[in-house]
Amino acid sequence: MPSTIWLKIRLYLMLVLFFAIVYAFVSAISYLLGITNFLFYGILAIALVSFQYLVSPKIVEWTMQVRYVDEKEEPELHRMVAKLAERAGIPKPKVGISALKIPNAFAFGRWKSDGRVCVTQGILDLLDKKELEAVLGHEISHLKHKDVVIITLLSVVPMIAWYLAQSMFWSRDRRGNAAIIGIFAFIIYFVTNLLVLYASRIREYYADAGSIELGNSPHNLASALFKLVKGSASLPKPALKQAEGVKAFFLNDVSKAHDEISDLAQLDLDKSGTLDPEELAALKEKHIKLGALDRLLELMSTHPNMLKRIKTLAQYEHG
User: Fold this and answer.
1) Residue 171: which pLDDT band, with cuts at 50, 70 and 90?
2) Over 60: is that where the pLDDT of 311 sits?
3) What is the reported pLDDT for 67?
4) Which candidate, 134, 151, 136, 54, places its Cα nearest to that of 96?
5) Which of the residues 74, 131, 133, 139 is marked catalytic?
């Protein structure tokens, strides 16, 4: 069985590497500019992080067309969220429904008491209760692990590097230090962006494991993921474009659904449209090997390759 401790260690090792690169970057830029203290960069970084941290929930709510619902309106949804939050040892999050047709769910929030778990109308029409509970367990685990905040904070660094590169390239003084700083900033943007994507993929594996630790069956989560890919693939591509900017919050990369469904179709041996324990157990013994293109696409994605991800879930399945 995969170790959640190893997933946690990988995430924190990545964070150490990330901030080591950032420190080296700031030190080098300061040296080239002749700045002996980091006060300006420190204030800029804190201001950008604070602004993004405070306004991001409102941006998500607006983009996802979220409407919060009370217990009278959605008693079953509230019951599931309350039970899972209690098992996870966190305050019960606010519960919302997104008007998006894309079947999915997401969690966000600024601190422990500010957690929000939302589902789209599309997912409510697609999953059965056990599959939905497994998905909600995944989202509750994101809040428990506080990885939403981690990704939000990390994503500021590539943004700063990108704007710095742009400003240096368009500087009137395109010679000497300005050109060097611009090239260096672009390299840092590229490297740190890859690290943010890597951290995002780790947190998805970690949240999958967290859902199982909260008492959900691996095959229910695997079946839910299968249905989400299938449901997204059935939608026209323009309908998926509306979630392009926030797809990192979803359980799967909806923009890749049309490509992933052909790989996943082989898992549904009885063509029932779900993945049962026997089908997941069969995958447990199979060797999954990704081609060069699939590995490259995964490297540039916020989510793990879905076939690999469901294969990992199979390792949790008993029997």
Assistant:
1) low
2) yes
3) 94
4) 136
5) 139
Over residues 221-264, the pLDDT tens digits come to: 999 999 999 999 888 877 777 677 677 789 998 888 888 888 88
Q: Is the pLDDT of residue 72 over 90?
A: yes
Contacts of 180 (CB under 8 A, 6+ apart): 32
Domain holding 216, by residue range, is 4-57+129-316
> To the nearest 10°, the Cα dihedral for 217, 220, 224, 225?
60
Judged by average pLDDT, the poorest of 154-163, 244-253, 290-299 is 154-163
DSSP secondary structure of 75-143: HHHHHHHHHHHHHHTSPPPEEEEE--SS--EEEE-SSGGG-EEEEEHHHHTT--HHHHHHHHHHHHHHH
Task: Specify whether the CB–CB gap between 115 and 109 falls below 8 A.
Answer: yes
In this structure, is residue 119 part of a structural domain?
no
- Model pTM score: 0.84
- Would you say residue 244 lies in a domain? yes
71 is catalytic: no
Handedness of CA 212, 140, 135, 82 (dihedral sign): positive
Distance CA 140, CA 117 (A): 7
- Determine, yes or no, domain membership for 70: no
Q: What single DSSP character describes residue 270?
A: T
Closest CA to 15 of 245, 249, 195: 195
Query: CA 224 to CA 187: how far, in whole Å?
Result: 38
As for how many domains the chain has, the answer is 1
Residues 6+ apart with CB under 8 A from 205: 2, 7, 304, 309, 312
Tell me if 231 is assigned to some domain. yes
